Amino acid sequence: MAVTPAVEEEVTAPKKRLSFKFPLAETELGLIAGIIAALITIFTGLPAVIKAVGMLLAFVWCTDSVRKTSKYGLGTGVPSIGVMAAGYGIVGALMGLAFARYGNVGQFFPGVLIGVLFMGGIGLVSGYFGNNEKYIAMKIPRLERAMGELGMAGTLAILLECSIVTGSLRFDAVVTQVMNTGVIAFMFILSGMAMFHPYNACLGPDERRERTLMVSIEISGLISIILGFTMVVLGTSPLGLWDPIALIVFGFIVWFVFYRRYIRACMKECYATVGTGLIKTIG
Questions:
Q1: Angle CA(62)–CA(91)–CA(157) in degrees, nearest 5?
Q2: Which residues constitute the domain of residue 67?
Q3: pLDDT (tens digit, 9 = 90+) per residue, 99-149?
Q4: How far is CA 184 from the centre of its chain?
Q5: Is residue 278 part of a domain?
Q6: 156 inside domain
Q7: 3-class secondary structure for 209-273?
Q8: Full-model pTM
């Protein structure tokens, strides 16, 4: 009886698929978010939705910096870091607005980036004093870099929020429509929440970077909705009523999608859930 020789099957390598990994590595995320947010910041004539994308990227970058700073055991210092980043943003934005008139052409304001760079330097210096053994000696790895990033990202976020509300980065317009109206207080509080709350919300033995950044994006959507209603009330949009309405719709979509993803991730990764009535209980 003839035996048929075994035939080796040809093994084909699987085709490589182009895929986008969320989130990017820390350095890649910082570079991409910082460059895009800075470009959107200096072009103030863009629609509010585009500015909201830049604001979202700035908040995600800042949240990532808060995370890598706080995961070494700051504890109650996590909110302090976020509030400090928002404070950096206010001071850096005011300095940028003071230099906005230098080199501007129409709706192009490259001078505001001076405030961004200045606060980046202040962050580096504060990180150095915080880590140096002769001073506070916190001994947190890469604290200098993280504090510098907090200064730049916080300033970009506040500048973009001011640009969304006023449609410009002229000092007098921001003072009249943001400072005098009290909108700056909401910006400060909500920006701080977008920076420190994601890490606080995800604290625990299994804190995961992807889930943490989801919260930052979700809060950015809520801020977009609030800024959209602010534009409607103040009537500050130079592009008409459709501009704030588009921002509100964008904010709602971002909030809904990423809040849902966050809750699903929590349900999947947690050991058990408690039936509070607000979130569906898994039996």
A1: 35
A2: 26-198
A3: 988 888 888 889 899 999 999 999 899 888 877 777 777 777 778 888 899
A4: 17
A5: no
A6: yes
A7: HHHHHHHHHHHHHHHHHHHHHHHHHHCCCCCCCHHHHHHHHHHHHHHHHHHHHHHHHHHHHCCCC
A8: 0.85
